[in-house]
Amino acid sequence: MYKIVSKKVLNPTVVQMEIDSPLVAKKAKPGQFIILRVDESGERIPLTVAGTDKEKGTTKIIFQVVGATTEKLMHKEEGEYIADFVGPLGVATHTEGIKSVCIIGGGVGCAIAMPVAQEFHRLGAKVTSIIGFRNKDLLILEDEFKEASDRLVVMTDDGSYARQGNVTVPLKEMLEEDPNQFDLIITIGPLIMMKFVVLTAKPYNVPVTVSMNPIMIDGTGMCGGCRLTLIQDGKRVMKFACVDGPDFNGYEVDFDEAMSRGRQYYDFERHAYEETCNLFKKEVK
Amino acid sequence: MANMTPKKHEMPTQDPKVRAANFLEVATGYTLDMAVAEAERCLHCPTQPCVSGCPVHINIPDFISKVKEKDFEGAYKIISMSSSLPAVCGRVCPQESQCESLCVRGKGAVPQKDENGQLVKDANGKPVMIKSEAVGIGRLERFVADYHNAYNTEKPAKPQPNGHKVAVIGSGPSGLTCAGDLAKLGFKVTVFEALHVAGGVLVYGIPEFRLPKSIVQKEVDNLKALDVDIETNVVIGKTLTIDELFEDGYEAIYIGSGAGLPKFMNIPGEGLKGVLSANEFLTRINLMKAYKDHSDTPVNHSKKVAVIGGGNVAMDAARSAKRLGGDVTIVYRRTKAELPARAEEVEHAIEEGIKFAFLTNPTKINGDENGNVKSITCIKMELGEPDASGRRRPVEVEGSEFDIDVDEVIMALGTSPNPLIKSTTSGLDTQRWGGIIADEETGKTSRDHVYAGGDAVTGAATVILAMGAGKKAAAAIAKELLK
Question: Are residues B323 and B372 part of one domain?
Fold first, then answer.
């Protein structure tokens, strides 16, 4: 059992928790993920590490309520326990030799992008961050990004806060202004956003790393559920996000396949989510 | 005088129609009378050919003698001297290609007699011969282990600690065996398991209807009673490395990390929804209990399923898909004779209504407009010259392509080794294909004090071979540390 040491609600559907997990905290690097189970009948879900406190022995996770498991997790309180917490898994984000980086986060993906930005900042790289949200209510981690970035652009889809538009708008402007200003673009967020970041960057030949978050079960290189396709020199190559990723060269990822595969259990998940919500509503009554 | 019936006593099973819709154990096990009567069939040959066919060299004739005497606990003690997991092996070992393949009773044929003891003759007046069968060693082993588990109340004596610490990576059959043998010698053993529950392939791979999880749990509990610590949720190579384990004071390490990433065919359409590895399908069902209503983990209940492959994993996947309501076809590129699966599993699969498309190989998977599988295109094969493995190589029959309509395709083609330990352990030599290089007799690797065995070394193989490797390594570790 793993204790929830702290819990903080960042916006109505996004929650931050620190989990007592000294072994994970000691090892985890930005870009890596953990797998957790909320309770004994729970499914295993991957969540990217949002930070660690090595002295306290805690690992920070930030998650959005999107289904039954995250709904159950959100209802857990500080001091309570979750059944399982294992990691760190996956390969950490490569940072060597990068002097200027553009970090692009979308929605809850910003929770994963944030420690990556902090790491580059710590290493002395010039950090430009572009973070996007659907609206003002969903904005998270603005202060943290401000601190870790030399330049920060906040975007909202509906213009209810900061600048209106997609994250690709300021990216294109920056690349137009000086296509050589970034050694690397790292983007983390919805697949469709990452796909368009890649398309936007392509004409300027700037390398793009994308962080993939497919369906996983074991997360240790056993089940193959997290597989995705890279297109390398015209050939389709199968990779496994849990051990080969989660970071991949954005120009090689077959996003359309990844988006399709991400919806494999959509009906089951919707149904489970509704049932879980109803359960909690009953409890509230 | 031995019981000279030519046939083994049949294993009682659930009716195929009934069991094809439930996940309860298929074979219900011998009764006491059946077990004694089957034991009577053993001739106690002085040369004991069966023993040499057992990878852990159980003294088979001796345990069978005890069964004859109805001293089942005595029989269990004899088996336990060689095997840590008798209830498991009695169920999942391929006995027909091991101990039972060498049994004298399985050689030759005897004339058939009717109920009155008269010879049965054919149309030409010649006696009808029936092929005689080996003693049901596996069934007896299972009976003895189940009897022990049901009636034994004695706790195993805790061994005197010898002051040495050993780490075992992986809690599958290989790791559990190695840990058990070492613990019995007084070693302080910690088993590290990546998943949330111990048992490895016995819990994530082999289905409940073939190996109930309560039996695995019992074996794990037996180890805990010997003071073995089991640390779940620790991925060696990630959470901790081999080097850190040595820093923590472990004097030897056994790597039994098992199979790794599933293999696919590299044909078009493998990214479609509804294509998955047998590992994923079985993990959802077994480890995550997706066949039960209250599980949070989804699994498809597909109507028409193709399972590609012919091994035990293919049978397990096919029979699980059947139990979820599917019409299941196993697609295999060779013939029934070459199926690598355990004979009993093939028979059970056929009884349960699994179809087989032999001499058939998929060439592509076709999807609908939503990215879901709708059919597979296959090509007919014929057997050509024998290849390096000695099996006749299947060759495509040109122009013989045809489609099978399916909504799910499960790939059961084996696995390649997990890269996590290899990539974080310097000085650990591996084969080109990724398997850890280890001495066959001792499990010694290229790193001092590091041993390995099971699927991590051999690639996908059987439970009993993994156990055998764990056993040999335990002996070698004891020899090294106690010298």
Answer: yes
- A280 domain-assigned: no
Answer yes or no: do B284 and B397 share one domain.
Answer: yes
* CA–CA dist B30, A139 (Å, integer): 65
Check if A44 contacts B (Cβ < 8 Å): yes
User: Cα(B452)–Cα(B174) distance, rounded to whole angstroms?
Assistant: 9
| Residue that is last in its domain, among B123, B151, B179 | B151
Structure tokens at B67: 């069964």
- Amino acid B385 reads E
Cβ–Cβ gap B196/A88 under 8 Å? no
Interface residue of B296, B300, B364, B421 to substitute, partner A, most A CBs within 10 Å: B296
8 Å CB contact of A224 and B276: yes
Single residue among A59, A89, A119 that ends a domain in this structure:
A89
Interface test with A, best of B169, B196, B293 (most A CBs within 10 A): B196
Distances (CA, A) of B437 to A18, A218, B73, B432: 41, 25, 39, 10
Tell me which residues of chain A, numbers 60 to 79, contact chain B at a CB-CB cutoff of 8 Å: 68-69
CB pairs under 8 A between A and B: 117
Structure tokens at B102: 């060498």
Residue B474 lies inside a defined structural domain of this protein: yes
Domain identity same for B401 and B421: no
Residue B11 domain flag:
no
What Rg, from alpha-carbon coordinates, does chain A have?
A: 18
- Residues in A closer than 8 angstroms to B204, CB to CB, are 218, 222
What are B264-306's pLDDT values in tens digits? 999 999 999 999 999 999 999 999 988 887 788 888 888 999 9
The CATH number given to whatever domain includes residue B134 is 1.10.1060.10
Cα–Cα distance, A232 to B293 (Å, whole number): 42
In the block, which residue shows the tokens 């290189």? A221
Domain span including residue B204: 165-260+416-481
Exposed / middle / buried, residue B163 (Cβ in 10 Å: 0-12, 13-18, 19+): exposed
- Give buried/exposed letters for B315-347 (b at 16+ CB in 10 A, else e): bbbbbbbbbbebebbbbbbbbeebbbbbebbbe
Q: Is residue A277 part of a domain?
A: no
Picking from A59, A218, A222 by the largest number of B CB atoms within 10 A of its own CB, the best residue to mutate is A222
The C-alpha angle with vertex A243 and arms to A238 and A249, in degrees rounded to 5, equals 60
Is the Cβ–Cβ distance between B166 and B228 less than 8 Å?
Answer: no
Q: Are residues A246 and A170 in the same domain?
A: yes
Here the ipTM equals 0.91
Handedness of CA A148, A153, A159, A162 (dihedral sign): positive
Q: Do B406 and B279 have their domain in common?
A: yes
Domain count, chain A: 2
Residues B97-137: tens digit of each pLDDT: 899 999 999 987 777 778 787 888 888 888 888 788 999 99
- What is each CA distance from A147 to A31, A108, A118, A184, B374, in whole angstroms? 19, 18, 8, 20, 51
- Parts of chain B with a pLDDT under 70: 1
Q: For residue B40, which of B68, B59, B12, B66 has the smallest C-alpha distance?
A: B68
Degrees (nearest 5) of the Cα angle B26, A218, B188? Answer: 85
Q: Shortest CA distance to B94 belongs to which of B318, B336, B343?
A: B343
Q: Is A254 near chain B, with CB under 8 Å?
A: yes
Residues A112, A195 within the same domain: yes
Q: Is residue B105 part of a domain?
A: yes
Count of structural domains within chain B: 3
pTM value is 0.91
Question: In which region does residue B96 sit, left (phi positive, over 0), alpha (psi from -120 to 50) or beta (all else)?
Answer: alpha
Residue pair B208/B390 in contact by the 8 Å Cβ criterion:
no
pLDDT for residue A54 is more than 60: yes
What residues make up the domain containing A35?
2-89
Q: CA A121 to CA A103: how far, in whole Å?
A: 11
